[in-house]
Write a structure and sequence with these properties.
Length: about 250
């Protein structure tokens, strides 16, 4: 049985078993060049991973009416009595067509930013081009524990409606003790480097950046990597990026 919460409600109930999204530090950071000749473009690619270390699964439900292009998304929060309650309107899902995949994406689950120096503001428009995320259990967290009495998997469609643009609804999410990862340069997993001056930068990954999803703790939602960018062959040549440090806590690299 579902109990309905008002849209945007961030309050918790004493019986909630909430997820806790723990963002891993950016990994597999490398430069990639696209195009050729004068049209060559250089991009910073990276892997991103988000684990659920909370007391309950992250489960979202997307649905739409006939004629609507996007799905409205609600969050289902597990409760200690084995039921769940519904958090209304936590986001949207859209069907994405890309050479890598064709399925439904949850928009805005994470944000990638390249910041100048140790803690400067994001360099716009140097944010990522990621259109959304297909949430699922892609790997097990080291030392993950399973809570007795709870299913190890949330309700989810692992392929997020693969090649089903006409789908009217689906579930997705991340189980307790599991994580969702995306490799470098998979659709949107990069930031353009063109025109950036040499120097130190901080690459910041943040899960649930707008806090629309209800969690038990938001303090571990960001992680980062300190980088040194140089142009050994001049501004038109291939840049070089050296990873100085990877930080599970954003503040330590900033």
């Amino acid at each position: 049985m579902l109990s309905l919460a008002a849209p945007g409600l961030a309050a918790t109930s004493g019986g909630d078993k909430l997820p806790n999204l723990d963002q891993a530090a950016p990994a597999d950071i490398r430069v990639f060049d696209r195009g050729y000749g004068m049209l060559r473009r250089y991009q910073l690619g990276f892997e991103s991973a988000t684990g659920n270390v909370g007391e309950g699964p992250l489960t979202i439900h997307g649905y739409r009416r006939p004629g609507q292009r996007s799905m409205r998304v609600d969050q289902l929060v597990a409760t200690s009595d084995g039921r769940s309650r519904q958090i209304r309107s936590v986001g949207v899902m859209r069907y994405v067509v890309h050479p890598d995949h064709r399925h439904w994406h949850f928009i805005g689950f994470a944000r990638y930013e390249l910041r100048r120096g140790r803690s400067g503001r994001a360099i716009l428009p140097r944010g990522d081009r990621k259109t959304g995320f297909c949430l699922g259990d892609r790997y097990a967290l080291p030392g993950a524990r399973r809570l007795e009495g709870f299913s190890p998997f949330p309700q989810q469609a692992d392929q997020c409606g693969l090649r089903k643009p006409g789908l009217r609804g689906l579930f997705a999410g991340i189980s307790v003790g599991s994580g969702d990862a995306y490799g470098a340069f998979i659709e949107g997993q990069y930031i353009s480097l063109g025109g950036l001056p040499a120097g130190r930068y901080t690459l910041v990954h943040t899960a649930n950046p707008d806090r629309t999803l209800l969690e038990s703790d938001y303090r571990d939602n960001s992680a980062s990597a300190a980088l040194r960018l140089s142009w050994p062959r001049g501004s038109s040549g291939r840049p070089r990026v050296k990873v100085l440090k990877r930080c599970e806590d954003r503040a330590r690299c900033g």
